[in-house]
């Protein structure tokens, strides 16, 4: 009897220590950005969201994000500009087709969370923090957040005089259990 009780305790502990694994649903997610171009806000999106998300609000140390977006999908609503952004001096999609975020920690912050980790664009990796909220339904979990980066930190666009340096990014990531 003692052995059965021990086995139940160990199995229960194993399942509660492991965060639930989710898969992003690209078609239901949004990766948006805004940057000043010629002094005017220019908006765009990225698609091709893939990766693995592990999330358990009761055990944040077992939670993580490892996700990518496909830079070939960049869409600002102007085909010529999108093609220009795919070139070497901007995103160089021939060499670097993906933007990747890998979390190193997730912390609770009041009613929201902060994912700290590494963002890689064009083989340049920088530490960032992404504040986010979580909404659950029966079928999915939605992570929403916003953050800001400097495009020059990642070697995107060089010293363009007409394009701003700061990029505002907003995320709505829909994910389902794997």
Automatic annotation (TrEMBL):
**InterPro entries, per the entry:** Lipid/polyisoprenoid-bd_YceI (IPR007372), TTHA0802/YceI-like_sf (IPR036761)
Domain (Lipid/polyisoprenoid-binding YceI-like) ranges: 21-176
> Which keywords, in A-to-Z order, does the entry hold?
Signal
Is Signal set as a keyword in this record?
yes
The domain of life for this entry's organism is Bacteria
The record, for SMART domains, names: YceI
Leader peptide range in chain numbering: 1-19
Q: How is this protein named in the record?
A: Polyisoprenoid-binding protein YceI
Source organism of the structure: Parafilimonas terrae
């Amino acid at each position: 009897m003692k052995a059965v009780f021990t086995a139940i305790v160990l199995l229960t502990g194993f399942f509660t220590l492991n965060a639930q694994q989710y898969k992003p649903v690209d078609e239901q997610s949004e990766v948006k950005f805004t940057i000043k171009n010629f002094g005017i806000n220019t908006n765009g999106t990225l698609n091709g969201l893939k990766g693995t998300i592990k999330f358990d609000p009761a055990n944040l140390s077992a939670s993580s994000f490892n996700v990518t977006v496909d830079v070939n999908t960049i869409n600002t609503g102007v085909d010529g500009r999108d093609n220009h952004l795919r070139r070497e001096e901007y995103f160089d999609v021939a060499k670097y087709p993906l933007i990747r975020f890998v979390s190193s920690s997730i912390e609770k912050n009041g009613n929201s969370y902060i994912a700290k980790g590494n963002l890689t664009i064009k083989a340049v990796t920088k530490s960032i923090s992404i504040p986010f909220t979580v909404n659950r339904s029966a079928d999915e979990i939605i992570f929403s957040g916003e953050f800001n980066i400097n495009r020059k930190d990642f070697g995107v666009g060089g010293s363009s005089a007409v394009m701003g340096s700061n990029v505002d990014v907003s995320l709505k990531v829909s994910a389902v259990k794997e």
